[in-house]
Amino acid sequence: MDERLRTNRINWNERTPIHARSAFYDVEGFKSGRITLDDIALGEVGNVSRKSLLHLQRHFGMDTMSWSRLGASATGVDFSETAIDLARSLDEELGLNVRFICSDVYDLPSILNEQFDIVFTSHGVLCWLPDLDEWGKVVSRLLKPGGTFYILEGHPMMNVFEESASGDLRPEHDYFHEELLLEGRRPSYAGSELIESPVYEWQHGLGEVVTALVGAGLRIEFLHEFPVSGYQVHSVMEQGDDGWWRFPERNDSFPQLFSIKATK
Ligand SMILES: C[S@@+](CC[C@H](N)C(=O)[O-])C[C@H]1O[C@@H](n2cnc3c(N)ncnc32)[C@H](O)[C@@H]1O
């Protein structure tokens, strides 16, 4: 495994128990039957009943198990051993019969000799991948001919801005491509506990994402952009009754999420 991905795996092993205790992930609500998938993904993916679904970078499994609750035959993949252990124990406790595989996305084709009706991935996945062309090839290899790929992800435009101490947003990062090594104790997106271990992140512009999928032989059915975010990216953002976060002013003029549906 790439040394940078090894570093990131340590970081995700540290984050997992912190996330599992957070109000953001609300594990108890999930145990009581909550579907953790959001309304955008549910509406755009559509009916998954009796379909085989592979969920990439699935963290500790609640969205994958939600797809199972909705009738899919679901498999979840993540490279964090801690996340997969927690996913398996939740699955056993709830009797949902989901398969979890511990693997780096890039290694998956060598350990999973299958193809799926749906490959799904969402919310905070591409910034952990250094090479999107390779990722596109992995997605294509794991889809059946005629199968559907769906991604709902933070818009790359959101990563360009840093917030000053006074709350102003300044364009400080490269939109198109950037590798960052983040060090020092930092909060995660889910709650206030600090993470100690370093982490690498990669920025990919929207054109790079689309080109990786098309280059791997997929046909794009749609690319949608949304003026809402799944978490409070900047302190000025406010959460609506629908659960999505927005800027208080001119929110509708700024993309915060995108989704792509593509067919093999
Ligand atoms: C932000 S989380 C995804 C969140 C998920 N959608 C959710 O809401 O719980 C990103 C996940 O990607 C996983 N990950 C990062 N790089 C990976 C890689 N190269 N291969 C497999 N999993 C990876 C991390 O372990 C983490 O669980």
Describe the structure.
Helices cover 29% and strands 28% of the residues. The protein is built from eight helices and 15 strands. It is of the alpha/beta class and 264 residues long. The mean pLDDT is 96. The chain has helices at 3-20, 27-31, 39-45, 62-69, 81-94, 108-111, 132-142, 206-215, and strands spanning 52-55, 73-78, 99-102, 116-122, 143-154, 161-163, 169-171, 177-182, 186-187, 194-195, 199-204, 219-226, 238-239, 245-246, 257-263. The longest helix is centred in the first third of the chain and has 18 residues, at 3-20. Helix 7 crosses helix 8 (206-215). S-adenosylmethionine binds at residues 5, 8, 12, 57, 59, 63, 78-80, 83, 104-105, 122-125, 128-129.
Annotate the secondary structure layout.
Layout: H1 3-20, H2 27-31, H3 39-45, E1 52-55, H4 62-69, E2 73-78, H5 81-94, E3 99-102, H6 108-111, E4 116-122, H7 132-142, E5 143-154, E6 161-163, E7 169-171, E8 177-182, E9 186-187, E10 194-195, E11 199-204, H8 206-215, E12 219-226, E13 238-239, E14 245-246, E15 257-263
Parallel strand pairs: 1-2, 1-4, 2-3, 4-5
Antiparallel strand pairs: 5-15, 6-7, 8-11, 9-10, 12-15, 13-14
Report low-confidence residues grouped into runs of 5 or more: none
Radius of gyration computed on alpha carbons: 18 Å
The average pLDDT value, as a whole number, equals 96
For the secondary structure, the number of strands is 15
CATH level 3 topology: Rossmann fold
Helix content: 25-40%
Bound small molecules, by name, code or SMILES, are: S-adenosylmethionine
- Strand portion: 25-35%
Major sheet characteristics? 7 strands, mixed
